[in-house]
From TrEMBL:
<feature type="region of interest" description="Disordered">
    <location>
        <begin position="1"/>
        <end position="20"/>
    </location>
</feature>
<dbReference type="InterPro" id="IPR007061">
    <property type="entry name" value="MST-like"/>
</dbReference>
<dbReference type="InterPro" id="IPR034660">
    <property type="entry name" value="DinB/YfiT-like"/>
</dbReference>
<protein>
    <recommendedName>
        <fullName>DinB family protein</fullName>
    </recommendedName>
</protein>
<dbReference type="Pfam" id="PF04978">
    <property type="entry name" value="MST"/>
</dbReference>
Amino acid sequence: MSDSWTAPEDDPRSYGNPVGEKATYREYLSNYRLTIELKCGGLDAEQLARRSVPPSSLSLLGLVRHLAQMENHWFQRVLQGRTDVPRLYKREDDPDWDFAGAVPDPAVVEDAVATWKAEIARADEWLDALDESDLADEVAFDDGTVSTRDVLVHVIEEYARHAGHADLLRECIDGRTGQ
């Protein structure tokens, strides 16, 4: 079996030349989301929940739960100021619940993937309505403010970091690397 994920002509990611700052953010964000999806593709619940190296709780399933939580936090709670939205995969007694709760159960996998996809859809709906001029807008964050632009760059950075983790996790599971 080839270690390539897909033939280049079948790769769902786009590598165009987007015009404008917002379009550039959208393309990078979309590509990283698709990369995580590709890295998780074709694995069962046990494989998705397999931990990296003890004592780390890092797993592909944990990454999906974490990224759902991250999308929810930044797009819903911070950028839209929706503090009434419950925090996903967070528990008072376990700050690492997004990863610690990633157990090899098909129902946990189904919930995580559905939640992640729903958060992506909510984020994209909000981002679709955003004008390029809104990127400089500031929103309340912690004891100060942060610009929409900074949040978008941070979300892309978060995906990029975790796509690297996903590469290593997938290679440990079945040897597949690349793309």
